[in-house]
Structure formats: structure tokens, C-alpha cells
Amino acid sequence: MLATLIISLTGTVFIYQGQELGMPNFKNRKIEQIKCVEGTGTYGAIKRDYGEDSEKMKKFYEALALISRDHGRTPFPWSGEKPYAGFSKNAKPWIDINESFVEGINAEAELNDENSVFFFWKRALQVRKEHKNMLVYGDNFQFYDLDNEKLFMFTKDSGDKKMFAVFNFCSDSTEFSVPDNKASYDMFSVTMQTLMASHIL
């Protein structure tokens, strides 16, 4: 869903290494595995002031799992080959590999699976290219119904055309109203299932 949102936004799309595979943040790393200076420094200060088993330390680890700079530094997972995901055979990388490579989140596995996140990105970017006047160059971006807790919606323009985008970030079907009920709308559905076959206009 986030990939679909990204390709709908005006401007240049940047895809960072691992993002095209859907690589998640690492999980449950010990402080000895952390290379981020800010992370190790904060750990030391909390341990000194509050102790290893403090509530502050628990919150530190929760924050580390979300925002550590090390998430973006882990070596790229080329394959499911242990121990280093095809990044190297014998030389241990300077930072530990993201463990998700053994779960199929690696380049080799995804390039051989047309239902993978990699192929979703590939097809999504093709859709963006086919509709670049609106998706890449569209302007007059405006949020719509920001109070809606389930949907993220916006409109933007390209010449005399207007796009109304709706992103459902919950698992339930959700009703919504359109900005202009007198306008005529062409359905353009971009979903994981849609992009695995063909997109609908």
C-alpha cells in the first residue's frame, strides 16, 4: 500500500536498497550488534542513569526497532544462502545481515516469484510511467477528509483532469464520499492483485 501511495505522488520517486524487496527493519538486536553511534550512546546514558532493566531501557529498545540508522545500513540480501545472504561467502560484513533473507526476502527469491514485492514495484512504476502527466507531473495537490481514520485521500490536477486518490490502510471495506458528486469518474484501481495481472482503467 505504501508503494502504491508513493507512485501516486508528484515528483521524483526514490527507492532505497531493500525497499524494492519489502525488506523490513531488523528485529530484536542486542546492543552489541548496533553500530549506530547515536544508539550506542543513548544506551550507555540510559544504562548509567536508570539501569539495564528500567522502563526507560525498554522504551529505548522499542524506539531503536523503529528508527535506528542501522536499518538502512544492513547489507543487501542477494540470496537465501547462509550465513550472509549472498553478500559474501566467507568475509563477515561490518554489520549483521537482516534476518529476513531466510524468509524469502532476498533478490534471488523475489526475481523468481511474480507475486513478490519486487514485481509489484516493477508493475507499479510501469503504471506511473503510463500515466505520468497526472502521477508524475500533476499539481494542485489537496488533502481530502483528513479526519477519516481509515482512509488517506487527496486530489490533484493535470490540465483539465482531476485525480481523486483513495488509500485504504485498514483490512475492512470502507465507504467514502467523492469531492464532487456531479463529476464523472473513470475507475483506476491499483491494488496488489490488480498489478499482479493487469491494471484496471
From TrEMBL:
PANTHER family cross-referenced by the UniProt entry: ALPHA-AMYLASE FAMILY MEMBER, NEUTRAL AND BASIC AMINO ACID TRANSPORT PROTEIN RBAT
GO biological process: maltose catabolic process; sucrose catabolic process
Gene: IMA5_4
Segment forming the signal sequence: 1-18
Family as reported in the entry's similarity comment: Belongs to the glycosyl hydrolase 13 family.
InterPro entries: GH, GH13_cat_dom, Glyco_hydro_b
Record-given protein name: Oligo-1,6-glucosidase ima5
Pfam families associated with the record: Alpha-amylase
Keyword entries, A-Z: Glycosidase, Hydrolase, Signal
Taxonomic lineage of the native organism: Eukaryota, Fungi, Dikarya, Ascomycota, Saccharomycotina
GO molecular function: alpha-amylase activity; glucan 1,4-alpha-maltotriohydrolase activity; oligo-1,6-glucosidase activity; sucrose alpha-glucosidase activity
Domain Glycosyl hydrolase family 13 catalytic as annotated: residue spans: 1-138
